[in-house]
Structures
1.
Amino acid sequence: MAGTDKSRRDDWSLATRLVQEGTLRSQFGETSEAVFLNSGYVYDSAEQAEARFKGEAEGYIYSRYANPTVSMFEQRMCALEGADAARGTASGMAAVAASLLCHLKAGDHVVSGRALFGSCLYIVEDLLPRYGIATTLVDGRDLNAWEAAVRPNTKAFFFETPTNPTLELVDIEAVAKIAKGCGALTVVDNVFATPLGQRPLALGADIVVYSATKHIDGQGRCLGGVVLGPQDFIDETLHTFLKHTGPSLSPFNAWVLLKGLETLPLRVARQCESATRIADFLADRPEISRVYYPGRTDHPQYDLAKKQMAFGGPMLTFEVGNKKEDAFAFLNGLQLFTISNNLGDAKSLTTHPATTTHQRLTSEARAELGIFDNTVRISVGLEDVDDILADLDHALAAKP
C-alpha cells in the first residue's frame, strides 16, 4: 500500500472523517477505496515472513487475520465511535458472540438486560451456559436489579439500548459505574440508537457492538458487524479469538460498509426527522393504543433519552387494534412499507415481532417485555415522509 493518502486533521468534523478517515491508496492512486479480495500476502524474504509472524514487523499475513479494506472500515468506525481500536466481523451476531466469548471462561458470570433481540437472548440464555458461564437476566431499567445480580465471579454486563422492539432504555452511565465497581466489562449493543445518536464509550461503557448490516450499510446490501473498545482488549483478547475462530468480515462487505459510512449522517438525520413526525401522527390516531418512541415526551424514560441520546432514533414501535388480526390487517394493507425483519434500510420496513424476531419466546415472556400480538415495529426509510404518512393512513383503515 502507498499508505494513508491524507494525514488526519483533528479539527475535521465527524461527517468529513466519515468520508476521509483511514483511506489507504495503492500505487495506482485510486479515488475510491480499493477492494482487496485476496486471501493471502507475499513476503520479500523468508526473514520478513518470520518477522511478521513474530509481530516484529508490520504487514498483512492472511485475510482471516486482517485485510487492507477491512482495516479502512475499522479505522473509520473508530473515528465515528471515538474508540481506540475495532475489529470487523462477518455479521452483527458474530460481533455480539465474539465480544463476550473472547473474554469469558467456564465459571464466569454475566449479567444481561432481559430485553434482547432473539439471537442475543439465545447467546445469553442458551449458548453461554452450555460452556459453563452462568447468566442472570434483569430488567435493564432497574439499577437496583443490576447491583443485586452481581456475584464475585461476574465478568461482564451486556445490554442493548434502546431495546428491540419496545425501545426501553438502559442508563449506560449508571450501569457502567456498577460494572466498574465489580470489575466487569460493560458491553453495549448500540444498533437501534446508531453511532450518531448515542456514544456508549463516552458514557463509560467498555465495549460497543454493532450489526453494521443495519444503518451503517443502510441499504440492505450486505452483512457485517464490528466490535469497538480499548486497544489492549481489541488487539489482544478479541483479535486472538477472531483469528483462530474465523468469523472474518469479507473485504467486499467492508468496502460496501465504507461506502455506507460516507452517507450515514445524511441518512440518519432524515430518518430521525421522519420518525418524529410519524410517531406524532400515530399517537393521534384512534386505532393506535400506544406509541413507543424515545423522542416523545410521553416515553416513560424521556428524561434519560434526553440525557444520553442525541435524537429519538430511526425506529419506532406501536400497538394497533387489540389482537394479531388487527396487526396483520395493518401490515398487509401497507403499500410503501416492506414487511421484513431487517431494519436500518433506505426503504421503510415493518415487522410483527411476536411472530418473527421474538417468536421463540413464550407469550408470557413476550408480555413481560411489552411485546403483544398487536405490537408492530417500523424502521423508517428515506422516502418522502408525506408518502409514508399517507401509506400508514391507508393501512390503518384496513379491517381484519
Note: The first strand starts at residue 85 and ends at 89.
2.
Amino acid sequence: MGTQKEIDCETLAADVVSRTRTNVLLTKTTMTSIADRSGFNRLTISKLLDKKRDMPLRMWLAAVYESGADPCEILSKAIQEQTALASA
C-alpha cells in the first residue's frame, strides 16, 4: 500500500492520456465524435490529447469510449507501470 503514495499522479494522468491518444489515433476516432459525446470542442480535445497531460474526466471517458477502449484496462496498465517504476 505504501507504493501507491509514491506514484506521481501528474505522471500517471499523462500516461493515461498518452495511452488514450494512441488508441484514438490507431482506431481513427474523430475529434468530432469525441466532441459530440463530451461537450467540448474539437480543438480543445485535440490540444489536450497532444499535450499528453491531464484532461477533464468526461473528455477522457468520451475519447476512451469513442475509440472502443476499456477505461479500466487503460487505468490498470498505467497504474501497474507507475507502481513498478516507483518500486524500482
Note: Helices lie at 2-6, 9-26, 31-38, 42-51, 57-66, 71-87.
3.
Amino acid sequence: MDHADRATRRTGAAAKAAARALQSPPPPPLPQPPGAADVRLRRAVELLYFAYRDFTADADALLVRYQFGRAHHRVIYFVGRSPGMGVGDLLALLRITKQSLAPVLAQLVEGGFVIQRADDGDRRRRRLYLSPEAEELERLLTERQTQRIAEAYAAAGPEAVDGFCRVLLAMINPDQRGRFGD
C-alpha cells in the first residue's frame, strides 16, 4: 500500500468520525465570562485562527505539488534549520511520537528530500540532512512565509513587532521558551 492509499484510508476514517460527531448531540456551551476582556480575547483567538490559515496557505499550495502536508513542512523546516539533528531531537522538538513521524520521514527519505546518515559516535543513531532539492523547497516555503510576516510588520509599525513577539513567546509553554534565548 503506497502513501496515497494510506492517506485516502486515513481521510475516509476521518470523514466517518466527522459524520458520527455530527450525529451526536452538541456539547453544552462553555460558560462565558462577562465583560469587554472576553470580547478582546475572542477577537484575538479568531485573528490567530485566520492569520494561521493565511500564513500556511502559501506553503500548502506549494507542498501539494509534492503530495506533502504540514507535517512534511515542519520536518523540512527544522532539519533545514539544524542539519545533522538526530531523529530523537526532531521528535522532542516537534513533540510527536515515532509512530506519527515515521511515515512522514519515510516519504521524505524515499523521495530523496531527507538524507539519513549514521552518527559517527553511535552508528545506531541517525542524523538528518536535507538534499539540495529539499533545501530549495525549504527556502521557497520560508521565503513566502517570512515575506508575509515582513509585510504584516510593515503594516503594524515597528512598535508592534516587539509586542507581537512577546505575546507569541508568552503563549509557548514555559519549559520550551528557553530555546528562543529570551
Note: The CA atoms of residues 8 and 14 lie 10 Å apart.
4.
Amino acid sequence: MLRRRRAERVKRVARPPEPHPSGAVPPAIPADLVPKHIAIVMDGNGRWANQRGLSRIEGHKRGEAVVVEAAKGAIELGVKWLSLYAFSTENWRRSPDEVRFLMGFSRDVIHHRTDELDELGVRVRWAGRRPRLWRSVIKELEVAEERTRDNTVLNLAMCINYGGRAEVGDAAREIARLAAAGRINPEKVDERTLAKYLYQPDMPDVDLFIRPSGEQRTSNFLLWQSAYAELVFQDILWPDFDRLDLWRACEVFARRDRRFGGAVDKPDEPLFDESTADESTADEPAAHEPTAGRPATDEPAEGRPAHDHEETR
C-alpha cells in the first residue's frame, strides 16, 4: 500500500502557486543568476505584534502564512532550496509560556500546512537537534518528511531546535566517535568529511542569506553552509514579508559579483540587466529600503532586544 501511494505521488503533477494578489510576476533574472539555495531568518514577529498593541504570540500566528508565501515565491523563481530559521537552540531561554506556545505552534503549523506544501511539490526536511524538542513536534516533522519525500519542485528545510555551532559540534562529535572506533582515519578528516555529518548532508551551500526586520547579523544560522553566502538585510518585519520581498533580494543577489576568493579582470558591466526585469518589480525600492505601505523598523538600536534573533519563531 505504501509503495502504491508513493507511486501515485510521483505521478501527480504539482500545482503551480496562485499568482500574487497584486498581479506581479517574478523578475526576469537569468537562470544562472537565480540563487539555488536561499536561507531566511524569520525575524520580527514580536516587534510586529508590539507595534500593534498585541502579544508576541499574535505575531507568531501572523507569521505562519508567510512560510508558504515564501515557498511560493521561491518556486515561481526556480529556487530549489529554501531554509527557514524557525526555532533556535538559544530560543529555549525565552519565557516558559512562549516556548510552550512555539513548540505547539510549530507542531500545528507543520500539521496544517503539509497538505498545501505537498500539492505545490515541496519536499519538507528538518534540520535540528532531537534533545529537548517535543516528541509531538518530531512526529509531525517525520510525517511531513515521509509524505513529501518524492517531491522535487522545492526543498523546504524547517530549522527547528537548530543552531549553526551546535550542528558543527554534533558533526565533529560523531566523527570523533567513529575515529575512536577505528571506522574513520583521523588523518583523512577534512571539510568534505565534516559536511557528510551535518543535519542535511545533501543541502547545498547557501547562495543568498536574507534577514528581514532591520537586524544585520546571521544569528548562528547555517554557519557552515553560508561561508560564501551573499547577505541581504531588509527593513521588513517577518509577518509583512511576501514573495515580492524575496524577489527583490534575488535581484540584489543577481547584481553581486561572486568570486569565492578569486579575482579576474573584466569589463565593469552589470551582471543583471535591470531593464529586462518585469515592470511590476523593476521600480520597487532596494532591499535595504523600507517597503512602501509597510511599517519600517525605525526604533533605536539600543531599544531592541540584545539577544540574537530575539524575534525569530
Note: Strands lie at 37-41, 81-88, 122-127, 154-162, 208-211, 230-233.
